[in-house]
Amino acid sequence: MTREEALALLQSQNPETHLVEHGEQTEAVMRAMALRFAPGQEELWAMTGLLHDVDYPGTKDDPARHGLAAAEIIGDALPPEAIRAIAAHNSECTNVKPESEFEWALRCAESVTGLIKAAALVRPDGMQGMKSKSLKKKMKDKSFAANVDRDRIRECEKLDLELGEFLDLAVAAMAAPEQH
Ligand SMILES: [Fe+2]
């Protein structure tokens, strides 16, 4: 599946702009994680990141189907491991438990985007020069971006990736000019 096809599929669900942005940010973090943990799988990890919430416009009132309905929308455009990773990103509702590095990566990648986006809004330079140390501080502040699940961000440790390193990797990926 090309990026153009993936984006068209995402757009076909009439998502709100912020959901497309969230997909693109998750795509960028997943691409960077694949470079390190699954070289050669960058496109698969990136497209799975881009499409992980593709079913959200149709499931926002039915959380148990979020992550499962995506399978019907994506069909065989992505391989089964991507479909499973998308289901496992909402394991709390779908009961599909994350097992592989790919699956853990999608969960922590899509969660860290919310933290970094919120932190960028309160900095004059946005993501430029953002440090993992200040992000860690914000993670401890429960009132900051309260909807961002800290435990899911810490799941980076399932890939033997230390939190600070993960935050640096994610900031770099999200701040980089888009490649497309
Ligand atoms: Fe998401």
TrEMBL record:
<protein>
    <submittedName>
        <fullName>HD family phosphohydrolase</fullName>
    </submittedName>
</protein>
<feature type="domain" description="HD">
    <location>
        <begin position="21"/>
        <end position="92"/>
    </location>
</feature>
<dbReference type="Pfam" id="PF01966">
    <property type="entry name" value="HD"/>
</dbReference>
<keyword id="KW-0378">Hydrolase</keyword>
<dbReference type="InterPro" id="IPR006674">
    <property type="entry name" value="HD_domain"/>
</dbReference>
<dbReference type="GO" id="GO:0016787">
    <property type="term" value="F:hydrolase activity"/>
</dbReference>
